[in-house]
């Protein structure tokens, strides 16, 4: 663990009970109940030959790219953001906004196309989300986004591909 992340987590230790009590409601509001996406039965290692080393590290080793490093931060065209591994559509561009964090951010995902798990890597609990089809790590969901939903889906740019409106979506990879 990096020293800075450890120190930041230690500063937040006194707030852990408060954060933990709020996290379940965030998970409940974004449940994938009724999802129609069928998960792939493909080991994470099998994706390595299809992805760049950096994209593989983010998607299947839960790495994080440097803030401000993704060209998708500057993407303003209408279109669809898809999983960089299996090409499942995850976000519509109308829900993208500038959060000031350095990562592509969205106010909501396409219903049923993401799954969730609790992440304690920075000591305090966070809601990690991943592609519901291939299981690739996308980013974290926070409750500090704009109205009306108040959600900030903070995504790694390496975990996404952008398909401009009017272009055909690529066939899902399996």
Question: Key terms for this structure?
Answer:
174 residues; alpha+beta; Metal Binding Protein, Guanine Nucleotide Exchange Factor, Chain A; 6-stranded antiparallel sheet; disordered N terminus; Met_Sox_Rdtase_MsrB; signal
Walk me through the structure.
It holds the Pfam family SelR. It comes from Pseudomonas lalucatii. Its EC number is 1.8.4.12. It catalyses: L-methionyl-[protein] + [thioredoxin]-disulfide + H2O = L-methionyl-(R)-S-oxide-[protein] + [thioredoxin]-dithiol. Keywords: Oxidoreductase, Signal, Zinc. The protein has 174 residues and is an alpha+beta fold. The chain has one domain: Peptide methionine sulfoxide reductase (Metal Binding Protein, Guanine Nucleotide Exchange Factor, Chain A, Beta Complex). The chain is 19% helix and 23% strand. The chain is built from 3 helices and 9 strands, in the order αααβββββββββ. The protein has helices spanning 3-12, 16-29, 53-61, and strands at residues 79-83, 89-92, 96-97, 105-106, 114-119, 126-131, 137-142, 152-155, 160-164. It has a 6-stranded antiparallel sheet. A 3-stranded antiparallel sheet has the order 2-1-9, with no helix packed on it. Strand 5 and strand 6 (126-131) form a beta hairpin. The longest helix is centred in the N-terminal third of the chain and has 14 residues, at 16-29.
Q: What's the Cα radius of gyration?
A: 16 Å
Based on Cα principal axes, name the global outline.
Answer: globular
Question: What's the helix count?
Answer: 3
How widely separated are the two ends? 33 Å
Mean pLDDT: 83
Q: What does the largest sheet look like? A: 6 strands, antiparallel
Beta-strand percentage range: 15-25%
| DSSP strand count | 9
Coarse structural class = alpha+beta
**Helix content percent band:** 10-25%
Q: Strand order, biggest sheet?
A: 3-4-8-7-6-5
Uncertain runs with pLDDT below 50, 5 residues or more?
Answer: 1-34
The CATH topology label is: Metal Binding Protein, Guanine Nucleotide Exchange Factor, Chain A
Signal peptide: 1-20
EC number: 1.8.4.12
Keywords: Oxidoreductase, Signal, Zinc
Domain MsrB: 44-165
């Amino acid at each position: 663990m990096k020293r800075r992340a450890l120190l930041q987590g230690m500063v937040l230790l006194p707030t852990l009970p408060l954060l933990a009590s709020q996290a379940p409601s965030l998970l409940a509001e974004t449940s994938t109940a009724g999802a129609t996406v069928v998960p792939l039965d493909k080991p994470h290692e099998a994706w390595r030959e299809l992805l760049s080393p950096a994209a593989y590290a983010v998607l299947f080793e839960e790495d994080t790219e440097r803030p401000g490093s993704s060209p998708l931060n500057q993407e303003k065209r209408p279109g669809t953001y898809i999983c960089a591994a299996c090409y499942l559509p995850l976000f519509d561009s109308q829900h993208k906004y500038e959060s000031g964090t350095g990562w592509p951010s969205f106010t909501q995902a396409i219903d049923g196309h993401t799954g969730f798990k609790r992440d304690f890597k920075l000591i305090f609990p966070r809601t990690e989300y991943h592609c519901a089809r291939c299981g690739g790590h996308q980013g974290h969901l926070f409750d500090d986004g704009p109205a009306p939903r108040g959600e900030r889906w903070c995504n790694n740019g390496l975990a996404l591909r952008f398909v401009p409106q009017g272009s055909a979506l690529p066939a899902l990879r399996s």
